[in-house]
Write a structure and sequence with these properties.
Elements (H helix, E strand, L loop, with lengths): L26 E6 L5 E5 L12 E5 L1 E3 L3 E6 L5 E11 L2 E7 L9 E4 L4 E8 L4 E8 L3 H8 L25 E4 L11 H9 L3 E7 L22 E5 L1 H13 L3 E4 L1 H14 L5 E5 L14 E5 L6 H9 L2 H13 L10 E5 L4
Parallel strand pairs: 1-17, 3-12, 3-14, 4-11, 14-16
Antiparallel strand pairs: 1-2, 5-6, 5-8, 6-7, 7-10, 8-9, 9-10, 12-13, 13-15, 16-17
Helix pairs in contact: 5-6
């Protein structure tokens, strides 16, 4: 299976640069998982495709203002640091630009010394591990000094930082938003509950995998970085009961999907647990946890389009993407959504 098999043509003007004024007014492409049948709709009508008894699973991770701009203490060279993963207390795995300027024991200063980072170790592809040195509360300093780590394909400044958070974001720790969830409003979630659909939450802190391209020819040779996940007892009970009673489990986003599939693969049931996952889902994978998937439109040749192709088929998904391009859907983080639904036989 070749990485190039998951390529598609995307005009640059279809990459959404700003979020819509109203989250739920984005377009929704509904695709039958098995037949590829397509229907155009609006996201606020997602409720029409959910049935009483269904379970909607959301990722409640909260994005860190994880992009910091500082300078080396010795040379004053400007360095950009993107926090990816908290490894131990005040130690963080980070993505650094320009990485060649940052060696072991390099000290970077942010906010005139309010926050400092000492490089403990160097890795490949711009990865560095830092110990952060500060007085006070780390996350308060991040709020003051950091900015939202918008993906590189978004060139427009985000005036309202909250628009890169879901309305239900709770557990801080992500380097990127679980973007399928950006379409939900409080009002829409309330209507979904009133229809008799259960909403529950998992946490997966989105890390390096979101930023890392697949740059090997053979898909199976790609190595995913690990990301932290957690499921509580309430969610595991809800999901196990849904499986037992034959109700549909709808994952909101690839991050939710990866968490649910990781747990089900490991335990053969849903379970209160936490850990690190590097699961890589591509065509040939047999899904064990979910029945339908709400997702955004993903980058060509990315692990995310591979996951979505595995859930349906590469032919159906690439056909749907071509349809979305032809009909000028908006793509990527601030773009429109796709609902890949279970065939109603």
């Amino acid at each position: 299976m070749k990485t190039d098999d998951f390529d598609y043509y995307l005009p640059e003007e279809l990459i959404a640069q700003v979020p819509l004024k109203n989250r739920s007014e984005s377009r929704l492409l509904v695709v039958d998982r098995d037949t590829g049948e397509k229907k155009d709709d609006k996201f606020f009508n997602i409720i029409n495709y959910l049935n009483e008894g269904d379970v909607l699973v959301l990722n409640d991770t909260k994005v860190l203002p994880a992009r910091l701009i500082g300078e080396k203490e010795d040379t004053k060279a400007v360095i950009e640091v993107l926090l990816l993963k908290n490894t131990n207390n005040n130690n963080w795995e980070c993505l650094v630009k320009p990485a060649k300027r940052v060696k072991e024991n390099t000290i970077i200063s942010f906010g005139n010394g309010l926050l400092k980072a000492k490089c403990l170790s160097t890795g490949e592809e711009g990865i560095r591990t830092f110990e952060f040195i500060f007085d006070g509360i780390f996350y308060e300093l991040l709020d003051k000094l950091g900015t939202m780590p918008l993906p590189p394909y978004i060139k427009t400044k985000l005036n309202d930082q909250s628009r890169y958070q879901t309305v239900y974001a709770k557990n801080i720790g992500s380097a990127a938003a679980p973007t399928a969830g950006l379409h939900f409003t409080e009002e829409l979630l309330q209507k979904i509950k009133e229809k008799g659909i259960t909403i529950c939450y998992i946490t997966l802190h989105v890390g390096l995998g979101t930023f890392r391209p697949v740059n090997v020819e053979d898909v199976t040779k790609h190595k995913m970085h690990s990301e932290f996940y957690r499921m509580n007892r309430e969610t595991s009970d809800i999901l196990n009961n849904a499986k037992k009673e034959g109700h549909n489990i709808i994952a909101v986003g690839t991050t939710t999907t990866r968490t649910l599939e990781t747990i089900m693969s490991k335990y053969n049931e849903f379970k209160e647990c936490s850990g690190w996952t590097d699961i890589f889902i591509y065509p040939g994978y047999k899904f064990k946890a979910i029945d339908s998937l709400i997702t955004n439109f993903h980058l060509p040749k990315s692990t995310l389009i591979m996951l979505v192709s595995a859930f349906s088929s590469k032919k159906i998904i690439l056909d749907a993407y071509k349809y979305a391009v032809d009909n000028k859907y908006r793509f990527f983080s601030f773009g429109d959504a796709m609902f890949i639904q279970k065939n109603k036989k």
